[in-house]
């Protein structure tokens, strides 16, 4: 079993347990509503973390290293598949001036990412949906956590030839990387589109 996946699921569980636990600070009559409100979101989030990939954010110290490889600038388009709470996407938008698109399956993380983008005022859109259905024909760079989606290879086949695709932590089976950067806590497996 993948230790990062298990760690991510445990961290997700700890986060929601803490948040629900804060209910004890509320007046007694509110505690039940607090629990009933958060419990379904917590369970959906845990299910998502287990079935898809857990929310394991890229450390912000990695932004510069990522930006170096993404080859982005004003006028280009960056896709982050599984954008989480959007912190990384906003940092990339601010540094590169690229138009950014984030896709996220968890409604809670999607809502936070949308708020973050709005607050930062960057040129970005955050879509609620499944990354496996993403249309990447307009992408100049794509970043994702290369876990067990099983679509990594077809994903690389679907981007334009010039597009840079970075898979975090995992190589894409059957595809030859143009580079692998292991200089930091996350390893970056870097590919180009077909042709
Ligand atoms: C490892 S986190 C990465 C978050 C962010 N991109 C970063 O690097 O900091 C993976 C994210 O992908 C989301 N996710 C997992 N499966 C997904 C799917 N099929 N479609 C869209 N998002 C998905 C998870 O909810 C989680 O927020």
* Termini gap: 35 Å
**CATH homologous superfamily label of the largest domain:** Vaccinia Virus protein VP39
Average predicted confidence as pLDDT = 89
At CATH level 3, the topology of the largest domain is: Rossmann fold
How many structural domains are formed by the residues? 2
Q: Per CATH, which architecture of the largest domain?
A: 3-Layer(aba) Sandwich
Strand order, largest beta sheet? 3-2-1-4-5-7-6
Radius of gyration: 18 Å
What structural category do the secondary elements indicate?
alpha/beta
Oligomer: single chain
CATH class of the largest domain reads Alpha Beta
Fraction of residues in helices?
Answer: 40-55%
Number of helices, counting only DSSP H or I runs of 4 residues or more? 6
Largest sheet: 7 strands, mixed
H and E order: HHHEHEHEEHEEE
Ligand set: S-adenosylmethionine
Concise summary:
This protein is α/β, with parallel strands linked by helices and 195 residues long. The chain has six helices and seven strands, in the order αααβαβαββαβββ.
Feature tags:
17% strand, 42% helix, binds S-adenosylmethionine, single chain, Rossmann fold, 7-stranded mixed β-sheet
Structural overview:
The protein is α/β, with parallel strands linked by helices and 195 residues long. The chain folds into 2 domains: 3-51; 60-192, Rossmann fold (3-Layer(aba) Sandwich), CATH 3.40.50. Helices cover 42% and strands 17% of the residues. The protein has 6 helices and 7 strands; from the N terminus they run αααβαβαββαβββ. A 7-stranded mixed sheet has the order 3-2-1-4-5-7-6, with helices on one face. Helix 4 (87-96) links the parallel strand 1 and strand 2 (99-104). The longest helix has 24 residues, at 28-51. The radius of gyration is 18 Å and the shape is globular. 34% of the residues are buried. S-adenosylmethionine (SAM) binds next to strand 2.
